[in-house]
Amino acid sequence: MAGSDYVHGYSASEVQRLIDQATTLTDLLHHDTRYPDGSTVLEAGCGVGGQTVALARHSPGAHFTSVDISPTALKTARARVEVQGFRNVAFQLGDIYRLPFPERSFDHVFVCFVLEHLRHPDRALTHLGAKLKPGGTLTVIEGDHGSTYFHPGSQAAWRTIQCLIDLQAQSGGDALIGRRLFPLLTQCGFSEVRVSPRMVYVDSSKPTYVEGFTKKTFIAMVEGVRAQAIASGMSTAEAWETGIRDLHRTTEPDGTFCYTFFKAVALQAQVGGP
């Protein structure tokens, strides 16, 4: 994670949102994330360990090294893994642009919800590719806020989402990065890049997703930048409340909500690539 570039911060509510997100989306994002026994996996930008628990559970014979730039986030991640009883994860403080590992150290690299927050995702990917052993794989998962659509429709709701997109852009990130994973990985020298969209579709027949994703993950994420959006002049308090109210309207019995994540898997980048 990129420290101060992380637009959402590390408040208690944001930590809970990340955990809710990871729990709700485990099957959708990780049903095909498995690593062989004895393999070494670098999780770059583990944050509060939202994905770490799923990785450790699904690949108990693999050894994970989970790295983040935030000591606070690492402390939370370590506690979450320990309380679950997993012993196949080691945590280390580190900057994704300057990781303290020799080249060709890992069999696999895993990155989830990290590139969207980085000013230079291409540099990060090139650096990560150099840490892979020959034939190693990189897995990247990112969202795309522009993929959001819902019923009933609302321009006010969309304007609140756009505030989040714009604030992330101001901090150097890209909330629309999911749609460009293929060209980004290809340009960074990775080969056999395969991208699969993972759509979350929510209606009232899926109450777990209504609560866990629409309310506690997506709307909570948007609500988290309220103060920044109003202070920057992107929205007024009244317009913001209208937009958030309309987003919550999509969680009622006749509402629907859609969002798409993108998961890319690729082979080792050429060391010394662009």
Any overview of this molecule?
- The protein has 274 residues and is of the alpha/beta class.
- The chain has one domain (3-267): Rossmann fold, CATH 3.40.50.
- The protein has nine helices and eight strands.
- The chain has helices at 12-30, 52-58, 71-83, 121-130, 155-170, 181-187, 207-223, 226-231, 237-249, and strands at 40-44, 63-68, 89-93, 106-112, 132-143, 149-151, 191-203, 256-267.
- Strands 1, 2, 3, 4, 5, 6, 7 and 8 form an eight-stranded mixed β-sheet that branches.
- α4 (121-130) links the parallel β4 (106-112) and β5 (132-143).
- The longest helix has 19 residues, at 12-30.
- It is globular and about 55 Å long.
CATH architecture: 3-Layer(aba) Sandwich
CATH class: Alpha Beta
Shape: globular
Largest sheet: 8 strands, mixed
Helix-strand makeup class: alpha/beta
The overall pLDDT average reads 92
Number of helical elements? 9
What string gives the helices and strands in order?
HEHEHEEHEEHHEHHHE
Pick out the low-confidence regions: none
Distance between the termini: 22 Å
Question: Keywords for this structure?
Answer:
274 residues, alpha/beta, Rossmann fold, 8-stranded mixed beta sheet
Task: Give the helix/strand layout.
Elements (H helix, E strand, L loop, with lengths): L11 H19 L9 E5 L7 H7 L4 E6 L2 H13 L5 E5 L12 E7 L8 H10 L1 E12 L5 E3 L3 H16 L10 H7 L3 E13 L3 H17 L2 H6 L5 H13 L6 E12 L7
Parallel strand pairs: 1-2, 1-4, 2-3, 4-5
Antiparallel strand pairs: 5-8, 6-8, 7-8
